[in-house]
Specification:
Shape: globular
CATH architecture of the largest domain: 3-Layer(aba) Sandwich
Helix content: 40-55%
Number of strands: 15
Number of helices: 16
CATH class of the largest domain: Alpha Beta
Strand order of the largest sheet: 4-3-9-10
Structural class: alpha/beta
CATH topology of the largest domain: Rossmann fold
Number of domains: 3
Distance between the termini: 41 Å
Largest sheet: 4 strands, parallel
Radius of gyration: 27 Å
CATH superfamily of the largest domain: HUPs
């Protein structure tokens, strides 16, 4: 397996520190606002890597942190006249639900910055003791020029780095390049040897990574926007505090762009995950993201998402048909040519575009097996499709229509439902569907079979099937 290491700027053979074990850290969200498509791109990408590493036989420990103490969180807390805990708690829950909707697996470890303050203070004390950091009036700064490899990750010679938009400036620092490890904060701070304060952003990840994965890890991943200064600073403070190499493989995913601009909250051009889910299912969003190589930028457009929607429907339909025809899928598919081709693609720096091409080729073969009534091939391709889609994080279970999609269908038959009142007809989507089912169940109880049958027939016309159980009546798309 080869991965592109941002640090060396080359494609490298992946060799874990400990045989068959992988320690992987991904920078998680700062929970102060709604997660957007840029977050989806990042966490779907590394979710896919996590799944593939496990599929390849590695024992993976995946740590993804939560930044719940930060200037942006405190700013929002002041604006809403509440506490940082309320803000971070609210948006952490929203983030968690968004990841669940996208079928992104929870990491093995999900530490919170506020629960790791002690580890941060310990690292900062070591850096001061060894001359790599200094305290001024309750603030603590890292001496950038003392770390000779500073700038290696971002490919920026230290001579070219000047105080600017990405470098914190202060009159009390020894050097404009020095960055904050600890910030004095009497209002929201935590006790420390330097007075009440709170950690700088960069020290948080160094501390959480060291506490839960150790001083040296295999993979550290995140968005390309984190290369400088965040990951550059992590390397400096971690290696100076720990006395050893911090990370063996630095991996970074490209931006999501809108009109060629990076999607971000600061530019106010972001689309939230909830907005996306309202219009496209999770599999469509994942396919849209994985169609592109993870290191390349992804241009957001409704046309691209519509294309992904059609692509996913093709996969979903093929799986449903081949599984229905073959009844039982062949689970012993690891030696098949298709799986080998899939692994070759993924082992080539996670070439998901090529891996998806293997899946679509298998879809064609599966459809052919069904058309030719070849049960053995149908079982084989059913197993391959179920295996490969799961590795890429797709949820193969049939998903219900969105409320808007359901509403559009119901509007085609609502004129023939004379039993509905005007008030009933004002209901939308799921609520209207519940009302229709309610009328049908009432008709069945009253043995009014003509109305009950008419409702089933009308719903059949818009490709909706009713399923009656002892407890309730459910519906699904054909």
């Amino acid at each position: 397996m080869k991965l592109f290491n941002t640090y060396s700027n080359t494609l490298e053979e992946f060799k874990p520190i400990e045989a068959n074990k992988v320690k992987m850290y991904v920078c998680g969200p700062t929970v102060y606002d709604y997660p957007h498509l840029g977050h989806a791109r990042c966490y779907i990408t590394w979710d896919m890597l996590y799944r593939y590493l496990k599929f390849s036989g590695y024992d993976v420990i995946y740590c993804r942190n939560i930044t719940d103490v930060d200037d942006k969180i405190l700013k929002k807390a002041r604006e809403e006249n509440t506490t940082a805990e309320v803000i971070s708690g609210r948006y952490y829950e929203i983030f968690t639900q968004s990841m669940k909707k996208l079928n992104v697996l929870k990491p093995d470890i999900e530490p919170f910055a506020t629960k790791t303050i002690g580890e941060m203070i310990s690292i900062i004390k070591d850096l001061i003791k060894n001359g790599y950091a200094y305290e001024v009036e309750g603030d603590v700064y890292f001496r950038v020029r003392k770390f000779k490899d500073y700038g290696r990750l971002s490919k920026q010679p230290i001579e070219d780095l000047v105080a600017g938009a990405r470098v914190e400036t202060s009159d009390i620092k020894e050097d404009v390049l020095d960055f904050a490890l600890w910030k004095k904060d009497e209002e929201f701070g935590y006790p420390s040897p330097w007075g009440k304060g709170r950690p700088g952003w960069h020290i948080e990840c160094s501390a959480m990574s060291r506490k839960y994965l150790g001083k040296q890890i295999d993979i550290h991943a995140g968005g390309a926007d984190l290369i400088f200064p965040h990951h550059e600073n992590e390397i400096a403070q971690s290696e100076c505090a720990n006395g050893c190499k911090f990370v063996n493989y630095w991996l970074h995913n490209g931006f999501v762009t809108i009109n060629k601009e990076k999607m971000s909250k600061s530019l106010k051009n972001f689309v939230t995950i909830d907005d996306m889910i309202a219009n496209y299912d999770a599999n469509t969003i994942r396919l849209f993201i994985l169609t592109n190589h993870y290191r390349m930028p992804v241009e957001f457009s409704s046309e691209a998402l519509d294309g992904a929607k059609s692509g996913w429907k093709r996969i979903q339909t093929a799986v449903n048909e081949v599984v229905k025809y073959a009844v039982n899928a062949d689970t012993n598919v690891s030696d098949s040519d298709e799986v080998k081709q899939f692994k070759e693609a993924m082992d080539d720096d996670l070439n998901t575009s090529k891996a998806l091409a293997v899946i679509f080729e298998t879809v064609t073969k599966a459809n052919k097996a069904v058309n030719e009534k070849n049960i053995e091939n149908a079982k084989k391709y059913a197993g391959i499709l179920l295996t490969l889609t799961q590795v890429m994080g797709f949820n193969i279970e049939k998903e219900k229509l969105t409320s808007d999609e359901l509403q559009n269908r119901l509007e085609k038959i609502i004129g023939d439902m004379e039993f509905l009142s005007d008030e009933d007809k004002s209901l939308k989507g799921y609520e209207l569907m519940e009302k229709v089912i309610e009328y049908r169940n009432k008709a069945r109880l009253e043995k009014n079979w003509s109305v009950a049958d008419k409702i089933r027939t009308l719903l059949d016309r818009i490709s909706i099937v009713l399923k009656d159980t002892k407890e309730k009546t459910e519906w699904e798309e054909k």
